[in-house]
Amino acid sequence: MKQIHFILNPIAGKGNNSLDLSILNKYFNKEDYTFVIKPTCYKKHAIVLTKESILEKADVIVACGGDGTINEVASCLVNSTIPLGIIPIGSGNGLASNLNIPKNIDKAIELIKKQDTKQIDVGKLNQHYFFSNTGIGFDAQVIKNYEASNERNIASYIKATIKSLKNANSKLTEVETNLNGKTFIHKPFLIFISNSNEMGYHVSLTPKALLDDGKLDILIVPKLSSLKIVLFTLLMFIKRHTFLKEVKTYQSNHVKISKDKPVFQVQIDGEFLIIKNKIIDISVLEKALSVICLAAI
Fold first, then answer.
1. Is the C-alpha dihedral spanning 130, 134, 136, 140 positive or negative?
2. Residue 132 shares a structural domain with residue 108
3. Second label for 136, Cα 20 to 30 Å away, from 56, 125, 223, 289?
4. Is position 122 within any domain?
5. Reduced to 3 states, what is the DSSP secondary structure of residue 261?
6. Which residues of 95-114 are buried (b: 16+ CB within 10 A; e: fewer)?
7. pLDDT band for position 89 (cuts 50, 70, 90)
8. DSSP-based three-state secondary structure for 80
9. Contact in structure between 87 and 108 (CB atoms under 8 Å)
10. Domain limits at 15?
């Protein structure tokens, strides 16, 4: 009998999320499957619950939430034989969108029943994993302001972006970036490293990124004038930001960023984080996560 464990974030997206056993029973034969539904109660609780599920010999572990919940669950399954299922009920749902996992709960559950899996790459920043993207600079400030708001929707994301624009240039710090054998000493507006072609809300800074090519797609934006910052932001929403000549794109399996002060403000899969280190070392683990998605992906 197969065990499927569902790690549910009740407050993801619009909140008040629940998972009814009657819905699961429509798709799974009770003689062949058992279900465990584990709601999270606090940030990082999904990590605790996932580790419990691994010890309980779960055959499939399903993250029910947004990119943050997916990150917590998936981080425990790196290099594991247990596949990750996803029911995207968050606000952005960038990784699920890239994997063509439907937002409709019934359709997502039907996909989990089929259990067609794909091996995808995993990004690693120091000891932290990421499955969609990470970044320092402007996008980290946007996420910081977004988390401080009380709403999780595109309007709140736009407000956080506008708030971050107001003092974007005043917060730039000098860093040294090592990439593909070259060293840059600069004050970047943004360094964005991605494994996925979408950030969420159908916004993308790396539309050509692939989840399984063994490479990270990197976008570096230098210090810009106030006018060009606004232009970059507008172009970002229509995926035309690379039209600006200052915007540079790269591919690599390793990036190292360092600075004198031992603290970095970063975002990892849409979650704000402070890294207390002079160096952030970013690499890719090839095909290190098994994820349930459409067979055609």
1. negative
2. no
3. 289
4. no
5. coil
6. bbbbbebbeebeebbebbbe
7. confident
8. coil
9. yes
10. 2-115
120 assigned to some structural domain: no
Contact 271, 235 (CB under 8 A): no
Banded model confidence at residue 295, pLDDT cuts 50, 70, 90: low
Supply the pLDDT for residue 13: 67
296 within domain boundaries: no
- As a whole number, mean pLDDT of residues 203-220 equals 94
What's the total number of domains in the chain? Answer: 2
What residue has token string 């507006």? 189
Residue holding tokens 């998972």?
Answer: 19
Q: Are 48 and 77 within 8 A, CB to CB?
A: no
Alpha carbons within 13 A on the beta-carbon side of 181: 0
What are the structure tokens assigned to 224, written together?
């810009």
Instruction: Name the DSSP letter for residue 83.
Output: P
List strands edge to edge, sheet with 264-268. Answer: 248-252, 216-221, 190-194, 133-137, 264-268, 271-275
* Residue type for position 90: G
The values of phi and psi at residue 150, to 5°, are: -95, 0
